[in-house]
Amino acid sequence: MGQQKASKDGDRKVGRRALLIGGTVAAAGSAVLARDELARLWWRTPGVEKPRTEGAVDYTGARWVAASDANWRRADRPDDFGIDMVIVHVTQGSYDSAVKAFRDPGHKAATHYIVRQDGHVTQMIRELDVAYHAGNRDYNERSVGIEHEGFVDRPQDLTDEMYEASARLTARICARYDIPVDREHIIGHVEVPGTDHTDPGRHWDWDKYMRLVRRARTTPA
User: Fold this and answer.
1) How far is CA 82 from CA 62, 144, 177, 181, 195, in A?
2) How many angstroms separate the CA atoms of 192 and 194, rounded?
3) CA–CA separation, 111 and 140 (whole Å)
4) E strands of the chain, at which residues?
5) Is the bond preceding 78 in cis, omega lying within 30 degrees of 0?
6) How far apart, in whole angstroms, are the C-alpha atoms of residue 137 and residue 171?
7) Distance between CA 214 and CA 173 in Å, rounded?
8) Which of 21, 11, 79, 71 has the alpha carbon at shortest distance from 50?
9) Measured between alpha carbons, how far is 121 from 133 in angstroms, rounded to an integer?
């Protein structure tokens, strides 16, 4: 979260992929392609929802706690918006306070995951959906956000258990979407253009974290 200022991300009625359908179909000249594209978008019709499994998580071992619907937007990533980034946050509070905030429709922000100081992982938004976490619409649409329990000015909050659990989570996300394990694609909230947040702060050990992510990336899940 960094500073306690809620980010907002207005709904986009039709995604970039939808806008390309006409040109793609015309260029391909294929009824099969048209059918496939329409099949991807059928759930966008008013009153129709894409099937979801209640309580399902994208990361094995995570606990599911649903964020408020007001803090994220339904999507079909990576089909409508490609995922090529992981954004690291620090909660500026306790785990419980972060969960409470993300379940509050008035907060207007949430991340996909929260990692506790003891290494426990909670998922609050599905990876296929757009979480309002970066304060930048483009970055929201292309990223997965991970909060870490603690305060940016308290290095003792950044435990080994937290680093290791988060690194395993980030490694699996990178593997799933073929995201390069480097600092161009794994960034802090402070590095998002236009943000006024400071997390994960100067005490976040990027060298350690990236080393752990690379190690986890090459370790069988």
Assistant:
1) 23, 11, 8, 16, 21
2) 6
3) 10
4) 63-64, 72-73, 85-88, 113-115, 121-123, 130-131, 143-148, 186-188
5) yes
6) 24
7) 12
8) 79
9) 17
How far is Cα 51 from Cα 61, in angstroms, rounded to an integer? 22
Torsions phi, psi for 61 (to 5 deg): 100, -15
DSSP state at residue 150 = B
Spatial CA neighbour of 74 closest among 128, 17, 148, 113:
128
Contacts of 175 (CB under 8 A, 6+ apart): 217, 221
Collapse the DSSP code of 71 into the 3-class scheme (helix H, G, I; strand E, B; otherwise coil) and give the result.
helix
* d(C-alpha 22, C-alpha 55), whole Å: 36
CB 147 within 8 A of CB 114: yes
- Residue-wise pLDDT for 171-208, tens only, equals 999 999 999 999 999 999 999 999 999 999 999 999 99
What does the pLDDT look like over 76-128, one tens digit per residue? Answer: 999 899 999 999 999 999 999 999 999 999 999 999 999 999 999 999 999 99
186's tokens: 């794994």
Scanning the structure block, which residue is given the tokens 């309580």?
55
Tokens 């930048």 correspond to 136
Is residue 206 within 8 Å of 183, Cβ to Cβ? yes
